[in-house]
Amino acid sequence: MDPNTRLNYSQPQYIETDQNGILGPVLVFTVQTGNLRINEKALKFLKGCLSSQEIPELPSIVKTTPKDIQLDILQWIYTICKETNWPVFQHGTIDLKPNSILSGMYTLPTQKNARFLPFNFTVFLLNCLKESEEKTNLTKLSENLKSYQTRFKQAGLKGSNQRWVHLELHRRGKTIKHITSGILQINSGKDTRFIRGTMTDQVKRLFTEIQTDKVATARLLRIHGLPTVTHERVYTLDQAIKTARRLGYPLVLKPYNGAQDRHVYVNIRNQKELIKIYRENNFPSEDGLLEVFIEGPIYRILMIQNCIIYCSLKQHEYIEGDNKKTISQLIQEHCDVSYKTKYKLKAKFDYDQIIEKNQIKQMLLAKNMTLSTVLTKGQTVRITRIPGMSSGSIVHYIKASDLPDIFVQRLTYISQLFGGAPIGIDAIGENMEDAKFNEVNFGPQLSYKTGSYFRNFLDAEFP
What we know:
There is one protein chain. With 463 residues, the chain is α+β, with helices and mostly antiparallel strands. It contains 13 helices and 22 strands. Helix content is 32%, strand content 22%. The strands form 6 sheets. Strands 1, 2, 3, 4 and 5 form a 5-stranded antiparallel sheet that branches. The chain is globular, with a radius of gyration of 27 Å. It starts with 6 loop residues before the first strand and ends with a helix.
């Protein structure tokens, strides 16, 4: 082997304490190369796949010149960690040997789970860069890169809450230790606290069991005189038909143990539509929940210690057929409409500028439709992928001071009922005064686009 292409490295050392200004666990190892020539073909390919202009959320002591290949490597490692939801917020560091391109001591951020993966990925990158251009197979390189991305993703944190709460805790200078499965210990001794995402150690086990049962949650709220959505569990299609007759149409059908919007069907108007959903959409019949359909937006509220951290309004948007217009024409009309109310705002959109039309087409194909399909009178289709909306919804954030007093009183009561722990509360209705409560969830999901909510959450939990 040509000594100039030889790559030697030490066994990585896993260290849980901060090193070189990097917060959290790190890997430390040394790399020794000859005076190799960088493979420009592989370098160009890797830059195209992994390069990012994002600046790491937290600074670190980067011992390289910004234009050097070493910084590219550190940026690639940071990029793959962030994209796969690792609790990595800094570049690593490389303490280079004099007159060397890649030789030196590497200190890379990592996590307890899959701790040696960043080291293995670094070795993969270095081997790509030292290989001769003649031997470089970009197809194989691409396959190996995708394999690493999959491995990083499998080891990443579940849900964005965990990563961003973790980041805010670092910014506050909290002492953090990783326990298991995203659980963090904060501080020590009598000040010890535990947290995973937005779920904290204040959550009692019995409350956790209640909030995972939609029927039990509704029953508990009704016992305390709070308005709730009417629903019943169903286990078969025949039972669903009988329950639907008793509850009355229109209805909502969704999985009892479902997550978010998967297999949720709204505004079912008759028995024929209900049967069609079961038979044509592979609905998990043994796990159903039938719910009386309520017109109006969904209100999502985060409560901590009886305080409202934020309230959002989510309004699903639909187009409705008239036996004349195509789906494309109805979407065009929808885009041309604008309105503003106390809580909702919809701006006009240029239909020709929508870049996600392929997403719309795929959604329609799943329903055996195209943009040229003429909807029958009363037939509706939920809008998806329209700019400014989330899955066909208008989302608006409301100040706590703008909420009606009766709504605030009910929210406060629910917060007290669940011990002041961080909870997400869902309600639905045209007016907040008459809104019916639908779900209560521990560890509610937050959007980092509204990063102030994470700060408010931590202010309330760790003052």
